[in-house]
Write a structure and sequence with these properties.
Number of domains: 2
Low-confidence stretches: none
CATH class of the largest domain: Alpha Beta
Radius of gyration: 24 Å
CATH superfamily of the largest domain: Type I PLP-dependent aspartate aminotransferase-like (Major domain)
Strand content: 5-15%
CATH topology of the largest domain: Aspartate Aminotransferase, domain 2
CATH architecture of the largest domain: 3-Layer(aba) Sandwich
Number of strands: 13
Number of helices: 13
Largest sheet: 7 strands, mixed
Distance between the termini: 56 Å
Length: about 475
Amino acid sequence: MSEPTWDDLETWGKRAVTWGVGYHRSKRDLPVRAQVAPGDIAAQLPKAPPENGEAMEAIFDDFEKIIMPGMTHWQHPRFFAYFCTNATPPSVVADYLIATMSAQCMLWQTSPAATELETRVLDWLRQALGLPDGFHGVIQGTASEATLAAVLTMRERTLGWAGNEAGLPGQHPLRIYTTDQVHTSIDRAIWIAGIGQENLIRIPTSGPLKSMDTVALNTAIETDRAAGLLPAGIITCVGGTSTGACDIVSDVAVVAKRQNLFLHVDAAWAGNAMLCPELRDLWAGSELADSIVFNPYKWIGGQFDGSVHFVRSPEDLTRTLAYHPEYLKTHGADGFINYSEWSVPLGRRFRALKLWFLIRAYGLDGLRNRIRNHIAWAETLCEKIRADYRFEIVTDPILSLFSFRATGLDDAGQLDFVERINSDGRIYLTQTNVDGKIAIRVQVSQFDTTKADVMLIHDVIGELL
């Protein structure tokens, strides 16, 4: 058979688009979580690669028959587990264009439009979030990459920019301060940066938002300094993955300034809600931070991947990450940005195009309306579950995230209940740990969900208990 050519793209591109439209029209009829056992998909795949090319018809058929039954549907309107990786029609179109051009946008000269669009679109988002002019944005692959970049900058700044050159051996241990409510990506950033798990200091939390105790934070920093250790930075949490925990960033910022420490705000999910001015009290003080991260794909439909990372000092970031071999230099031009110098990977996709399409297609008001609806529906559902004697609310809603338990079940029973819910297929929830006990976690952020989808949660859990 003949090899695929670009002439074939018209046929298969149309088929893919037709399939995609049908998928989104019918996704409510699918079980949210994949209903397969470990090894089911692998058993249907040949153990050796084909020596000769196969027909696209056969490949597409196998995609539908083998792959799709093993997919959990993150675009399902009743996906209430984790945080969503939302896709929207405009961002899908943009991603198709990105894939078709397949540009490597590491330097201004390798695609000037990609660099200049990224600069402009991220400034749109800075304005939309109410952040001051002093912040500059870059698109990282994920919040994990942004957090790693922040931790590396903390390290270098504390070591007088000598860590990359001289390494960490012989240095006094560096200390990073956070709470037990932050994402595990913080732990991994500490490992990769060579700082070590023992030097990630967990500060106690208190109050309904499980906020960092700033008195304990200040004491820990001063104790470490007195012991000859090197405090380097603080990582705060706004909208923690488990229950939506939020540090009082303004109070933490006072300590950070007093102690001359780098302050990073992880608002990967909740940062999206800051498009709504009335919700910004939740991250008040973030304008004082050195860096902030949020993921548009987790709520407003920016589509995975692509994480927005704002920094107060691009110079500190590039001093930490930039490398200038001759083949990466742009000659004969001034005033340009090479965003590969702002990130850990050298290679960069044209992610800004997705955000440009998205923001222009929906407008900020369209995106805000979805956030407000999701929060209101989550609050209504929470009260419905609270009124049902068979359940108890464990943590109240923070934005659109809350948790509950089935009354009378121990931890093993809660886990078994979650598995029954997800095996049923109509909704998808996950568990978390709250104060040492298992709770069932609900979060509403899927772009196409409706109030009826959200209210169905109560019906399903009541039926399956």
